[in-house]
């Protein structure tokens, strides 16, 4: 084989082990046969490095390229033609991430080159042009089989490469050689001990996603040990190695594993005592920086900052891992400030340099916007956020540190493109085959919650620092929060408030965690934040009428009662109702020895609020406003004030006052959105808020979300968006957890909102510059996960105060509907008015029994009853007309008709229907004192309708009881003839009893506001034709989409536009009929 004479610089060489020997032989054998070589194996076994080292041995240039899934065959064609003309080697890293369609074309391209080499041509045709061929060119590919996001190679491609399995390298041998080269004398023993230690660690410690004891971890320890050895030549060798092992491994262990790890170390190196290392000026500066930011200098934070600093020296890719609320962001911010300060102070350690941070959330933008993409229309290359940031960092040639911080979930989609950046190549490979070399002063920092979906290839490339919120706890937060008000408070009051926190909160958090069920899980720190915000809104705002200068004997009881109120709602705010009593009792026990807390003796604590005028707790019920019925208001906009609307509105108002985000949760139909909407519209004048309502759906994208938000805000300057002057914008997001999860379980719209919550802005999608957003608070509502709703990342949830809205009790349901019905029946005869209580009582009872007895099963998946069904019953009764409903029997008939429509119509078999009819007849005797046989509901069905007068105007149509069935059939026949005259397709229908009932049911739904129908049944039962006739009877247009070949999501969008133009712009009444096959 001919030596290449390519000068590649003096770089480090590999340690030769039996495995590398075997690999060299195989690769050289492959080249003799004009094939390529394909080393395959797990991460960190040296596949790429061995290939590069062989190229160095033969003095060939070897280009390493990291493949990603957005490469296409044109790019690869350009690549191969360059290889053939220059005669260089190329190593395609992670080759099996390329999509399968592209791989089969690559096989064709490689065969062309191989045939030309076999025929010993000097020029050949490639992709339609003639190019020259230098026969030394070769392609190598490396693969990780079976990792996330990898494909299987097609057979015609496999035939062109010789596979080599690279499994476990010989750690002991490698460690021994490297230690010798770093200047250790007793390296054989040390290497054996070290490999033994890694073996014990991987067997005995707990299994965590971010642990990795592979070759890369070993290598970083050896490099660190060499640096320490040269730095402290007088220390013993085993002491140096232990320190290197400890410093590079401790940061990533959980608290329990750290103890085990120290045990393993002392077993392997008996009798060695490590001197505590003194960090001197570094530690002092870190504490100064913490205090300067107004934070508490806790020991665990300081040690984490130092650990991060040491990890950064060894690895240029670092991950900060740990659950939310542990202070990951603070740790790197403090380190950045510390290094900058030390440099300014003139310390001459080369590592103390000013730091520039570039923060981005990789999941808040699409893959194309992150790494750049080719514009489909103009075929121009558009740079992405990562490419721009890295390029900006590389152009800065000073020694300043440049940290690129990716704050967002790590998954195989985007992180794998960083693989070559994170290992020794330090190259960012973009899809337009551009490669950017990173300088030594650039560090990649990833801030993640866990590494559950990252592949081992990523984990092995990064240094890990695990930050555990269990060490920090929440007390430092309270100290920092209270310090803001220190000048307002007297000394005694300040300590009194701190004592309240330290005495009660921890027990409360434990009790909630162990004994109660939370609607949506929430971290402790987030509850404590809510508690602080409530106290701040009630005690420390300018508007609150609490005199903080009173004498302590009067002031402390007031503060204590306020604390109990806030503590109840902050810690117990997101418990489900069934746990309320338990938590109530728990609080009473906690505070019974405290004389300052004047708890009300009657009623539970949930029904009390702090009345600052009388300085004691009072019942909510006393401040619930009364309801006035207005016949002009549509049914869906009526809001009867109850205790729930008042108390949740009050809490939301107080939290928004201190600019804290609120999240309502609770099952569907309890009025989350209604409470929030009513409150925001009610206080927008006096609090000068501008409410914006957004709905999330499964198809919401982060792009769309950003457009909506930007459209509603005013542009202050080029890089600043904000609310109108003197106002605050409140963005209320309904159904926060609806957006669909991508392949690895993250939700881009949610990440976008989190980026705003954490950093106060987002990137412009076109020009990729950062925009700040001012004066905006988020509020949202979502039901607990399940049924198309997805769990939301805890890193967003921690910014919200969660309040779980309970389902209304029977008492409040009756109160709500009685207020409405009494208002409605005001013009009716006395006999009808008296039935109001009966109607509401019966309706609530039927709803209760239906929802507990008839549960959804796979065959009856639509047996889901919620409060909206109950309100539809009442809404139906509101269609009655005073001219027709004159007596008790008539009102009962319309009531039973509405109940049948809402509940009976969704039952699918006769036993369920019979059960319902029995309930109805029981209600008749219990509430309306009428005896009705359950059978009559079947034999003489009650049908109401307003279509008996053909051609009557909209206003003259009366909703009346239809008794004469023959007359009804004739009327329907007339309508059918009329329909056939006007429509192109003739329908022939026979009106038997069931068909007549179905038509009446559909007409009733079409007549109602927000009346949407789901018709369930086997094919051929007349669902479509009856709907067409019904919409014709009501004078509505019937709109259907036509499926054709090539009908896709965009054409559906166009059809919807047509439909909305008909209904919204031209004001035509429209029915949209849509079948399940579409």
Automatic annotation (TrEMBL):
- Which keywords describe this protein according to UniProt? ATP-binding, Coiled coil, Cytoplasm, Cytoskeleton, Dynein, Hydrolase, Microtubule, Motor protein, Nucleotide-binding
InterPro entries, alphabetically? AAA+_ATPase, AAA_6, DHC, DNAH3_AAA_lid_1, Dynein_AAA1S, Dynein_AAA5_ext, Dynein_heavy_chain_D4_dom, P-loop_NTPase
EC numbers listed for it are 3.6.1.3
A single cellular component GO annotation: dynein complex
Molecular function GO labels:
ATP binding; dynein intermediate chain binding; dynein light intermediate chain binding; hydrolase activity
Location of this chain's protein in the cell = Cytoplasm, Cytoskeleton
Picking any one GO biological process from the record gives: microtubule-based movement
What's the short name of a Pfam family annotated to this entry? AAA_lid_1
Q: What is this protein called?
A: Dynein heavy chain isotype 5A
